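seq as requested:
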Amino acid sequence: MSVTSFFSSFFNTVHGDAPEEKQPENENKEEEVAEVGEPSKESEEEEVEAEDIHPVIIEECKNSAACASLTRHFEHCQEKVQSGQGFKGEDCVEELFHLMHCADACAAPKLFSKLK
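struct tokens:
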């Protein structure tokens, strides 16, 4: 018994020249109706989602007194790098991490208190 015959006993052999299998006509019609048809009232009601307050809270925390110095430091770094005054390959990832850590620490209690 060869390796290929062993594996072919478990898996179907597929040939590139084989004709495509036709689906029954009633399945095709259901797919077309699902694509073309209007959404039902149930699906419209399910699509209503609450507004995400996380970005708003993060922005408030970035501008808060606790994170203001880190925000200024990050913006200064960005200006320096974009103007070409920084050293070669410099980026502001470290400053971004410090800023996001501060903003997340500030936002977490506010966010979790508003969750249902």
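The mean pLDDT is 78.
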